[in-house]
Amino acid sequence: MLIDINKRPVSFSYNNTERCQSRCITCNGWKTPASMQEKEMTLEEWKSVLKNIHDWMGKYQFIISGGEPFIREDIFDMAEYAASLGDTVNVVTNGLGLTDKVDKLLESSFTNITFSLNSVKNPSIHNVSRGRDDAFKRTMDTIQNLNYKNKHKTGHRWKNIYISTVVMPSNLSEIKPIAEFCKIEGIGVSYQLMDNGDAFATAVETDEQIYGKDIKTAALDAVDEMIELKKQGYPICNNFNQLEAFKVLIKTPDKIQNIQCMVGENNFAIDPYGNCRICFCMEPIGNLKESLPQDLWYSDKAEEVRKKILMCTRNCRLLNCNFK
Known about the structure:
The chain has about 325 residues and is of the alpha/beta class. The protein is about 35% helix and about 15% strand. The protein has eleven helices and nine strands. The longest helix is centred in the middle third of the chain and has 18 residues, at about 135-150. The chain starts with 10 loop residues before the first strand and ends in a 13-residue tail after the last helix.
């Protein structure tokens, strides 16, 4: 067996829907047919899954993601139920539908709230990346309103607020402005290279030639900037090992396989339909509407996927699920 019988996952990600209001250029989730909506797990099915995992793991923490998780109004009930078990609930959102839900967010059971934001200096960069002309304003308004009330309003549950930025040729000049914004606001930021590994391989003709033909050099400079800002105390959540790995991908992508992928030993992800994966990019190891989580984790199917992970050469090993 590749996995120790006493080894349990440490990173839990629950995707409650693939539906989304954004039309992001870095994601295909929003292209899921509407007909899949009726196949999503109900709130009661999610509660059963959460209880089974809690019974196995004891108190633990997980992230709810999407799609856009707040498209489902019952996400607040899902979080409240998990918190009642003693578990810690975090969420990743585009912030588009939360303008009028800031007070509800403050009163909710979420501990960490992460907003996807790809620029602060040039709103159009974020808007283009999200496929919506109103994306920047709506998300930024929510972040700043929530952060202000989080600091000044009494009688609510304290929230840790973060920004997650996908790094691509169009926003390399935004690295420092985003870090400065987060430092001023007192929130954290994590950077993530586009996970197809091709973002910096050649010049991007559609990028208005902002960086001419030397995208790689600009990208390396941007990563060096991240490292220096982190050393200076800016609230960058990526660890130094991950930032150095970004440089490996940009300079010598053929060497990236030397960085071990640990998702087979660490990850436990559930999609909206109950399918469980130990790698987002590989086939499910079973369905939690039919099996207990621990039975899937130690199953023959899970071992089969772990063997595939050992042979895998994908560059997605640089995603945040591999670095804490």
